[in-house]
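Below is how a single chain appears once it has passed through the pipeline. First comes the sequence as given, then the structure the pipeline wrote out for it. We keep one example in the README because the format questions we get most often are answered faster by looking than by reading.
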Amino acid sequence: MGEVYRARDTRLLRDVALKTLLPSFSRDPERLRRFEQEARTAGSLNHPNILAVYDFGVVNDLPYLVVELLEGETLRGAIDRQVLTTSSAIHYAVQIASGLSAAHERGTIHRDLKPENIFLTQDGVVKILDFGLAKLVESRGNESLSMFPTTERTAPGTVLGTVAYMSPEQARGKDVTAASDIFSFGVVFYEMLTGKRPFEAAAAADVISSILRDQPDWTEISRKAPPELVRILIHCLEKNPQDRFQSARDLSFALRMVEANLFVQSGRQEAWNKSSDAGGTSIAVLPFTDMSPQKDQEYFCDGIAEELITALTKIPGLRVASRTSAFQYKNQRGDIRQIGQHLNAGTILDGSVRKAANRIRITAELVDASNGYHLWSEKYDRDLEDIFAIQDEIARTIVETLKIQLAGPTDQTLFQRYTDNMDAYNLYLQGRHYWKTRTYAGISKAVECYQEAIAKDPEYALAYAGLADCFSIYGFYAFEPPEEVYPKAMEAARKSLEIDPLLPEGHLSLGAAVVYFDYDWERGEASMRRALEINPQFGLAHCWYGGFLTLAGRNEEGAAAIRKALQIDPLSPFFSSFAALNSYVGRRYDQALQELNKALEIDPQFLLALWYAGLSYLKKPAYEQAIDFMTRSVSVSQGSTFFMSYLAMTYGMAGDAAKAIELLDQMVERSRTEYVAPLHLARCYLGLNQVDRFFVELDRAYRERNVLIYLPCMPEFDSVRSDPRFANLMNRLKRT
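Resulting structure:
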């Protein structure tokens, strides 16, 4: 019906999606009505699992709709690529049910739920799209219904929707209810688990007949899903609407129960148990909810929760669920008892933030996860400058409520302030939020935030460390010429330590920069070890140090360091990916893929896991799977030449020289207008077995300070390892 553009909202300074109705359709009253209904219906719903509508209007007879910009793919794309894992399917299904529940409670029935209308963002969040066929249920007190003239309500007997996903009553043209969406959900969920639709036929009439009379192949689904999940699906796909779940809220709760039970049975729960003292007091800090009017304080809410986790982790006798574990419940809430069981936590800290101008309202509550009863709750209405005092007060109240004995003076501050400037602190939190994206656009935004924070407070050590990490990432992926960003990374890391010599983040940043760009293995290791001496619970430092040891040829030591990181945060896809890297370098490819499956179950779009999976399949060899994962890494990275070079290398080693040369030509063409690292070109030539060209580019890569830390040990370079030119380069890297 329309076209969608990426656009810039110049008033609120954000990227959005702009949907316009095609001129031929804008002259069709029915199409125009559906377009307007989509705007009004979705615009009346406010839920993290429903596409947000910002604006609607008509300019020069062209109707337009402004909605949030989503990065990712539709569920259809994910299913067509491969059958989802059971855990991924449940993770998405819970969110779909949650979004439907919000719509139903506002009196809106979707009527066209299908994989094409469900979007999966890059961070694993589900968004329900396209309410163009939505039906407004007439019910007393239904506020949303009053927006729609009676002419916009569907006449009885009208059949609307997509045939393969219709409920029996919908196919018959009868009145639909929330149970109709639940039937469609069941069809989608069945397809998520099996890759097949439960009712299939060549002709639409035969599909309708199957929906009305046939039962799905329950044998097929039983091979893919546990019995309790099969029972939920059967309940969703009952022919009689009265026999189905009567609310999406009940459906969501049932799915969460299954998800929690599966988690308890998994090895991840076992890893958490091993890392915990059996009798200790335990807590999980859930991500705080953004209650601000513009819903633009996600970074601030996440920052508060993360800093509380960091502070509580330092308290002896208190076990704290890791950030990755607790942040699974971001934008989702369920039964606290189930969450506590899931996270193996005796208490749960939950809260919300409402920020306006220079005022902030923080609501916090501490709940006993064994029974769901509140232990403590408080509301703080303060000036923004009081945020540090509020955080310290919350942490201290937790300590007092849980009767934990603090070591040292009882009036000690649990939070270490690195700045007293609230603007600088706010910018730092934004920078940390953008840094996690690992995309060029995200890192560039993080650099801006950190630099502005430093301008506000030139003595902000943490901001300098964050800036150093950004420049290191620039160089690692060659977003910018490494020889240009290397001095900036070193300068920022050293400045952070000049301000605070005991800053573990500063020592870690310096160690990474020294190894990446100076090839000084000894000095880099010393800096990383110093970070761990200062903060033994610094999970990222354990992980980076483990990666360094692995690539330095000390595989067993590297594995031990990465295991410590996983003990601190057993659900981190980043740490699991580094465990896979250790196995990959050790030529244990099947073991590497097992670790990567864990990471991809947590985050199916996690870039490092996609990359390492491609490499592991390449060396097995299993070329089809290797190409698939490398292709996905290029997509997720938004076309980074770093990942393009690995895809080209994979095509070349798989025998498809034409595809490899095509990618190489694209990179050469891009090098005319942007920096393309010679190391990336070298990989392409390696895949094409053009060894002389490979060494020419590799020598240039050394001179341009490309990041070569993984060159000595990575298996993809085994074919040239005996070449004297390779040994010569290893000597120049201060390694024999």
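Residues 138-159, 264-279, 407-411 have pLDDT under 50 and may be disordered.

See the next section for the split statistics.
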